[in-house]
Structures are given as structure tokens and as C-alpha cells.
Amino acid sequence: MFKPLNRHLLIEKVEKDSTPEEKSLVLLPDDYEVKSQFGLYQVVGHAPDCEKIDESFMGCGIVVEESMVKEITVHKQRYYLILENYIYGVT
To answer: Which of 1, 11, 23, 75 has its CA 20 to 30 A from that of 48?
Structure first.
């Protein structure tokens, strides 16, 4: 298991609902996807030096800016990290 340090949170992407989308009146490529500036993630770990995040946040949903999420690969395992001060809110 990867252990985050330096005020980082270990997070997992929360899959969005597969609700039917409305048909567009504009023709777009099949693989075109509108990306949101913000994403919903779940807290799965935190650095011991986090000031605002503690054990009570484990499993909580957080809203973050997608561009601030860092993806790293260690031993062929993918992890997502974000600094604690980049959290916009908790769900």
C-alpha cells in the first residue's frame, strides 16, 4: 500500500452515474467527451502531517479541481494524489 506524505491525500475517482445523455443537435466525433473542471473523489488515505484532514474524512467524497490531481505509478500500481489545500468541499 502506498502511504502519502507532505500533506497529500490518497484518493480514488468516484465513477459518475451512467444516466442517458441528451442527443446533441451538433455532430461530434463518437469519442468526444465534455470534461468537467471539477471531479468527485473518495479519500482513501492521508499524510500524517495533514492539518485539516483526519481519520473522519476516510471514505468521504471530496470535490477537487481535476488539473490538481496527480497520477503516479509505482510498481505497476496507479495512485491519485492531491494536496489537502486543493479540496473545494466534502460530500
So the answer is: 75
C-alpha cell of residue 43: 479519500
For 11-25, the pLDDT digits (tens) are 999 987 656 666 667
Residue type, 54: D
Q: Cα–Cα distance between 47 and 83 in angstroms, integer?
A: 10
Domain ranges of the chain: 1-15+37-91
- The class of domain 1-15+37-91 in CATH terms is mainly beta
pTM beyond 0.85: no
Q: Cell triple for residue 24?
A: 446533441
> SS3 string of 20-38?
CCCCCCCCCCCCCCCCCCE
